[in-house]
Amino acid sequence: MIIIAIVIGCVLGALIGINMPIIPYTYSRYLAIAIVAALDSVFGAVSSNIKGNFDLKIFISGFFGNAILSITLTWLGIKLNVDIYLAAIVVFAGRMFTNFAIIRRYYLDKWMQRRRDKKNENEKKTMGKGRTSKV
Amino acid sequence: MKIKKQELIISIIIGIMFCVLTIIIFVQSKTISYTDINALENMQETELRKEITAIKTKYTEALEQLEETNAMIKEYEETINTDKEASVLLESELEKSRNILGKNTVQGEGIIVTLVDVEVGKYGKITANDLIELVNELRAAGAEAISINGNRIVNISYIVDLSETYIGVNGERIVSPYEVKAIGDITYLESGLSQKQYGYIDTKVNEGKDVTLEKSDNVVINAYSGTLSFKYAKEVE
Description:
The complex is a heterodimer. Chain A is mostly helical.
């Protein structure tokens, strides 16, 4: 259900986005930061979903709040002539990597587990070694 | 049912969020690709502002420079004008000097005195002294330009006897008839020469020499052909 919603949202967004007018280049920097922040929120949501502590309110507030905060930081950076947006990018990208690592491990483990289960079923044996080491 | 409804709401919200996200992403990429094509729009507002300021400054500077240059041109023009005036003045001065020195061919009213050797008798011969005397007389009468047989008499001119037949004037040998031209006030010149009894002409005619005077409204006297320069005489500082 959620997957379908995501796909529909993406397709709809793509369709609308293609037909949207372009924005001034000055503001594209803010938009880029907002995109990074939103992507970070998405990754965070997925990872928290895996962990089991996903909260829609937190997700929504993070999605928009991070975007707005990063935009504000970028604006401030431009005003102060300091590239603060780099800090935002570093934080968001780092968190994205962390979250991605969590997601990756979770699904890898799941996949390995499934394979092992299949093997066990086939051989009717139990592997006593436990989980494979982390990657 | 309740769970499903909640799930539906969550799905819709997430779908909307993803929709917004993709819209932003597409708009951004579109903007980037679009602005990449138009390099001019590629600049950021601040950069453009900076550029505008720089251009304005440059413009002001250029304007200042233009004004400066214009002022300089004006100055130069003024200088040129004064230079021109100076050069004109100098030229006229030079011309005057040249006229005085005898470096120019001149014309004007004057007299022509012709002296011819008389073959008969020893005394009928015209000597250098006769010519010197004549030149002296003419000068005394206010002659401005004098020439003997086309040789301009200038400040360094000399008249000497070279032999029985030749007289040297300005390094040239001349023979009878001697034609002495002088430009000046005709009345003065004539009266100076043709005084009764003691005048030059009378004196010379009495000595048995052939001297005739001729008045002319347009006497042309050639320029001095030599160079007027000092080799040894130097100006005292």
